[in-house]
Amino acid sequence: MAVLREFWHKKHLYLFLIPTFALLIVFSYYPPLFAIYNSFFQWNGFSERIFVGLNNFTQLFQDSRFVNSIGNLLILLCWNLAIGLSIPLIVAELIFNLRSSKQSYFYRLMFIVPMVVPGLVGTFLWRFILDPNVGLANLLLEAIGGAGWRQPWLGGTKTALISFMIMGFPWVGGTSVLIYLAGLQGISNEILDAAQIDGATGVTRFLRVDLPLVMGQVKLMLILGIINGLQAYTSQLVLTNGGPGYATMMPGLVMYQEAFQYNRIGYANAIGVITFLVILFFTYLNMKYVRSSSEYY
Amino acid sequence: MAKQSLKIRLKKMDIGINIILIILVLLTFYPFVAMIFMSLKDNPQFIHARWVPTLPFHFENYSYAWQAVGQYVFNSIFVSGVSAVGGVIFAALSAYVFARFEFPGKGVLYMMVIALMMIPGVLTLVPQFLLVRDLKLLDTYWVLILPYLAGAQPFGIMLLRTFFEGLPHELFESARLDGANELGVMRNIAIPLSMPILGTLMIMNVTSTWNDVLWPSVTLSNNKVKTIVFGLWGFQSQYYTSWGPLNAAYTISALPLLILFIFTSRLFIQGLTSGALKV
Fold first, then answer.
1. pLDDT tens digits, B213-250
2. Contact assignment for B21 to A186 by CB distance below 8 Å
3. What are the tens digits of pLDDT across the range A146-182?
4. Within a domain: A266
5. Chain A neighbors of B214, CB-CB under 8 A
6. Does A199 touch chain B (CB under 8 A)?
7. What is the CATH number of the domain that holds B118?
8. What percent of chain B shows pLDDT beyond 90?
9. How far is B267 from chain A (nearest CA, A)?
10. SS3 for chain A, per residue?
11. Domain at A259, CATH number
């Protein structure tokens, strides 16, 4: 009763939540439930569903396209996490160590400006750079090491995946730099002074003082990096469609092709369910084992 | 003596850092600068000297490109604008309630919102498509705007709740004592103090919806409603050999965001460095 009375007393508060939850129920809660349900059926999106139990899942792990895509995904994910966590942090540390606030602002601005160029345009520009015949990458390689150094890049079975790793060089994500910089600027002057008195400078200070104190930011980037990385496939869809062979196939791309080229909705949804379970697992690991920033104080 | 040598050492360090950062800036910018060079070339110039600027500049490439993608630019401005503004308003209303009040079900409702961040697009793309198909929304602006509004909620609510909770309690108490109602307190106290973070969130929403290719690629087939970035995908396969206009179209696709950025960069940098983004 008391709960009901409190609910009634504070009913106006729920009005604020209505727009959000109305949208979420239709466009965010219903679709994943519908997808999980569909993953147990064979369905083309139009006619009758046929219940197949776990068949879609067992079939997936015998599908060489999907099995290949997992390997590719893991390689790209590890690479992107390593690059995406470290390089922005190093750049943020460099900017943090500048004594002139004008210079510091200039670099913050410079690294954030490329954000205005759509990611897809960046992908297309990198395809120009990696063009096997007239691309800048091969021009430079030929100038250094002769014609033998030229690479087929996106067209070669062995180089296609590497091409996706090279894209975006030198990988300074402006948003990440600013988020790290926020962490560094949050470190109190007393701590920095104490570190200096104790003789901790340069790399020692970075490892012993700065790094532990920006763990909150590192953890955020790690979670976002894993969640985004597990479902990345736009560049592959646009540039290679998974080829040559299955060299750049991604689980998300298998899902896309199954759903929108072959109309196999249940099979496509099974891939979504697996991705979701993997994200759930990583989130659990993250919450259990990665310490939060507040625990350091 | 010792003092001076420290000064010189610090100065040397500054110069070293500047050199590294300048090199990184140049490498980061080169592809985009090359894009602008390429957008001003005709085909012979493109084939002979792709990676350096060549004279004369062919500005007519831009008028060709604009004829092809101009409509897409307006579509994107409308869709991203409505989604970003609406998304931030709805998220702010919810975040405000979560940050400042106790009510039955608060914890559960908040967890339900945050849990959505774990649900991947790979899982929802297909059922969302089936949903909007059955709602007869395909090839309309709404097919983009409604899911974008919903998609902006979890991260927006998390970010704004953290920020609102950090605002000093005394301000709210004194406003309430002065007789302001809840909406008044929010409008006059919370919102003005939160402009940098609200602006940051809005820019993040604009860029994420502006950049989206996957959702438009399954829900839009009519040129009248296509967004610019999705439109470029079709444009580049159709005009694969008209290099100049193609790169001009790429450049055009970045201009609206560049203009937005020029007016909001200070706010955005302030918002991102405010320290609210961590776990």
1. 999 999 999 889 999 999 999 887 777 678 889 999 99
2. no
3. 888 888 999 989 999 999 999 988 999 888 998 898 8
4. yes
5. 234, 237, 256
6. no
7. 1.10.3720.10
8. 54
9. 12
10. CHHHHHHHHCHHHHHHHHHHHHHHHHHHHHHHHHHHHHCCEECCCCCCCEECCCHHHHHHCCCHHHHHHHHHHHHHHHHHHHHHHHHHHHHHHHHHCCCCHHHHHHHHHHHHHHHHCCHHHHHHHHHHHCCCCCCHHHHHHHHHHCHHHCCCHHHCCCCHHHHHHHCCCCCCCHHHHHHHHHHHHCCCHHHHHHHHHCCCCHHHHHHHHHHHHCHHHHHHHHHHHHHHHHCCCHHHHHHCCCCCCCCCCCHHHHHHHHHHCCCCHHHHHHHHHHHHHHHHHHHHHHHHHCCCHHHHC
11. 1.10.3720.10
Residues in chain B: 279
Residue A267 inside a domain? The answer is: yes
Owning domain of residue B207: 71-272
Q: Which residues from A are below 8 Å from B77, CB to CB? A: none
ipTM of predicted complex: 0.87
Structure tokens at A80: 């992107």
Note the pLDDT tens digit of each residue in A89-119. Answer: 999 999 998 888 889 989 999 998 998 999 9
Collect all residues of chain A within an 8 Å Cβ-Cβ radius of residue B254: 116-118, 121
Q: Tally C-beta pairs within 8 A across A and B.
A: 270
Whether B223 is covered by a domain: the verdict is yes
